[in-house]
Amino acid sequence: MRPLRAGVFAAGLGSRMRPAGSAGAPPKALTPIVDRPLIEWVLRDIVAAGASEIVVIVNEQSQSVCDFITQAMPSCPVTWIVETTPSSMHSFLRVLETLAASGDEGPFLMTTVDTIAPPGTFASFVDAAAHARPADMILALTTRVDDDNPLTMRIGPVQSDCSADVVTVGEGSYATAGYYFVRASLLREADAARRANLPALRAFLRYAADRGCTLRGICMPESIDVDRPGDVAPAAQLLRGSLGRVS
How far apart, in whole angstroms, are the C-alpha atoms of residue 61 and residue 59? Predict the structure, then answer.
């Protein structure tokens, strides 16, 4: 099996995690869940999945995220991009372009920084996605739809490889879990999407599907998208239950 390379997009400002008018709050990626910040949980699970390189994008106000990981995980194979991007789509494409710059076609494991899942989830997803039919993107899907504005999907019948074709982006009973198995072929729509000034990754996925890119989904165990202060406690509960311990 080819070496696994991965990407994390953590360039968002995390405004929903901060009370109105707050100043000096730490970057969203450093939000503590149990005994570790979000980004450490994510990076540790990516490393456990066997990643040989991880490209992480943070905004220009989040240099402290780089400093923290350098101290907490000195052997973690991270390549940093420090850039404030206009949207989650731009962050996603910037990371994907960096992973593909050497001519590597992927697929790559890519995830948001705010996805909390039981340890070992990324390894399970990579194994399942690697055995699924090739697609421009394979999305981890969940039936937990409690985000303010979830990106929902309608899927076709689950096939023998455990994947299902994404039939409709923007409606349906499944939501993206925030992590993906992505091929560089998706970049054929990057320039047009930027010219169209699409506002977010969700818009890009809808756009890519409409333009004929193949999207498939794999249903995964429960995960939590930590977008708001109220998501922290459920995320901690999920982790404590999976680890079999209480902090």
Answer: 5
